[in-house]
Amino acid sequence: MATVRDWNWIGARAAVVLTLLVGALSVVTGIANIGAGAGADFRVIGVLVPGIARQVAAFTGTLTGFILLLCAFGLRRRLRAAWFAVLVLFPITAAQGVLQSSQLSLPLVGLSAIALVVVGLNVRTFDRAVSLTTTQIASLAALAGAQGYGTAGAFALQEHFDGVSTPLDAFYFTLVTGSTVGYGDITPNSAIGELFALSVLLVTVSSFAVVLGVVFTPLIEAQFSKALGRMTEEQLDVLENHVLVLGHGDLTEPILEELSTKADILVVVPDEERSRRLSDRGYTVLTDDPSDEEAQHRGRVEVAKAVVAATNNDAEDALAILTARQLNPEVTIVAAATQRENVNKLKRAGADTVISPAALGAHFLAESALGGHGAEALEARLLGAGGESEDLEAAAEAVSDAADEVDDTGDPPDGDQRAQ
């Protein structure tokens, strides 16, 4: 199960990266060929294509590229709508590359074909539906209605405008007016035209302002949430193959320092002040009860690489472990036991590995007090001091070497034997 999850994570990243590459290449290729002009007619697979088609393909290819760049962000959020969109756009970009018929367009055609296969094979990864709030739906409907009103009205009143003769001219006038660009190439020539232009200005500018507010408000909320040590649903949605740390205590600090450079981490803590301090230090934090089922759902335990429970409260850790095991029976769960007698209890709760730092430290100190000289060397080897951290196999070998010092009866040798 873990292997399948890792493959899905790699495949999802490959799909996002390829979509970004195709989008960027489509934009660059389109801009380069727009400047080249239409040129003479040419043949594609024996079919004669007008020269103007090259310039049209270059222009539309640039737009397609920008849309693909937006779709890549949708894929990063695992949106199924973005997956459908790129499956439609990849053949279009390939066709646009063929029509542009230049050396720059050849990589676009090949990369589009590869991206189509990779994204298509990862269909199960992109399973999230687009969820729009009532405000977002209303703002988009208002924008569409405003554009429809301006286009239909300008075309119906075309005799009252200089420069409007087709529906495209009317749409152009409405869009330019609503965006407040105002080129001035289409102007009213009567009082009726002026009154209608004023109404279009008020309606379209207001709708643009509402849509922009709806778009930027979540971004502002995300910044406030980060300052308060909270995460938005959008930030949680993109978490995958991460390490979920349930709770925070003295034992957790060195664990976070070790993990921070090796994996993506999400720390779940119930205290807002501690959450804010951890967020200020650069950690990704969710303020919630670590043992709560809904909190772990929000922390995406179902796609986590591992779960760590290492606070100073074994009872709370046991509840958090029990919840995590129920939500994801396949995830690796590791825990630290504050009291040695709770090791088996945490394992029964669902932890795969339980270590008692206090018992381990006490053993090293006792061995050193009785004349042992290898405790510090063993600790340095386990921690990878003086170089890159050693893997678990090397650590196991170190423990095995230490165990060889124990005689066949299972009792540690006396002080003189250890000194030798």
What can you tell me about this protein's structure?
This protein has 420 residues and is an alpha/beta fold. It is built from 17 helices and 10 strands. The strands form 3 sheets. The chain has a 6-stranded parallel beta sheet, sandwiched between helices. Strands 1-2 form a two-stranded antiparallel sheet. Helix 1 (2-36) packs antiparallel against helix 4 (105-121) and helix 15 runs antiparallel to helix 16 (392-403).
Category by helix and strand content: alpha/beta
As a percent range, the share of strand residues is 5-15%
| CA-CA gap between termini | 49 Å
* Tally of alpha and pi helices: 17
Question: How many β-strands, per DSSP?
Answer: 10
> Domains counted in the coordinates: how many?
4
Secondary-structure element order, N to C: HEEHHHHEHEHHEHEHEHEHEHEHHHH
In order across it, which strands form the biggest sheet? 7-6-5-8-9-10
The residue fraction in helices comes out at 55-70%
- The radius of gyration is 31 Å
What layout of secondary structure does this protein have?
Layout lengths: L1 H35 L5 E3 L2 E3 L2 H25 L3 H21 L4 H17 L12 H23 L4 E2 L4 H12 L8 E2 L2 H37 L5 H5 L5 E4 L5 H8 L5 E5 L2 H9 L4 E3 L5 H6 L7 E4 L4 H14 L4 E5 L6 H7 L3 E3 L1 H13 L5 H9 L8 H12 L11 H5 L1
Helix pairs in contact: 1-2, 1-3, 1-4, 2-3, 3-4, 5-6, 5-7, 6-7, 15-16
